[in-house]
Amino acid sequence: MSYTAWILLTASLVGLSCSLIGVFLILRKMAMMADAISHTVLLGIVIAYLITRGLSGVHMLIGAAIAGLVTAILVQWLSNRGVQEDASIGVVFTTLFAIGVILISTSVGNVHLDVQHALMGEIAFIPWKTVSFPFIGEIPEATLLLLIVLIVILAMILAFYKEWKITSFDPGLAASLGIPVAAMHYLFMGLVSVTTVASFDAVGAIMVVAMLITPAASAYLWTDRLPVMLVLSSIFGIASAFIGYYMAYLLDTSISASMAFATGLIFLFSFLFSPVHGLLGKKIQPAANDATIDG
């Protein structure tokens, strides 16, 4: 595959993985949790490096995933003790992210691990760091990791679709049916953490947040059916990757930032023209119906 193809494939895997998870985040009204976890995983990455002195390997994934789970647990713990959920997210997110930044500044030194890289990532470097895979040959390490994560996400959604659907719409009903609501919540948060970590190094925190929230929010404007929302969110995530890449090529600017901006353009179009919840779409549809009746 060409250099451009690997970048587009990697970005599409990020968009697909994040957009599927994002649907359930939107339905659970936990969009800001995505922002929190995408930043607090920095602390897990830094601690993993300080322990192992290695910038690659499974220990980085484990450290970041643990940081994401700790974020979810602390937010839930504060919420259960009377602190509003949005305030809990704000406190935990800023505190853990600040600790990560301080550790980078004081303990990491000259290693290639900095706040700019953490926020924006560098997807243009992805094709150069490869691993050998049977029957495929050389494949970028980040692409392989994201492919594995996508398979895990699809497997988990298929396995727990009913449980996550019920707990997302009505946790009280789920509890009355015997579904372990807390266990499903932390399992889902673990999946959010793993998805965030897998995407983090390639595209940075900004694009992770954009891909987790915006395609799903756009899909929500087009449909009220969960299966359709999952499909639309996936399409929007992949489309954002392609639109953003060619926008960055034309403007000679950051690829990840352009892809994040593309998600915003898709949301704006959906906000204006979707027939279900669109600002103009809802006005156009009755007018079209009236014209049909009059005809």
From TrEMBL:
One of its GO terms (cellular component) is ATP-binding cassette (ABC) transporter complex. GO terms for biological process: response to zinc ion; transmembrane transport. The keyword rRNA-binding does not apply. The chain crosses the membrane at residues 6-27, 34-52, 58-78, 90-111, 142-161, 173-196, 202-222, 229-249, 255-273. Its main location: membrane. It comes from the Bacteria. Keywords: Cell membrane, Membrane, Transmembrane, Transmembrane helix, Transport. It holds the Pfam family ABC-3. Gene3D superfamilies: ABC transporter involved in vitamin B12 uptake, BtuC. It is a multi-pass membrane protein. SUPFAM superfamilies: ABC transporter involved in vitamin B12 uptake, BtuC. It is found in: Cell membrane. Belongs to the ABC-3 integral membrane protein family. This is Manganese transport system membrane protein MntD. It comes from Insulibacter thermoxylanivorax.
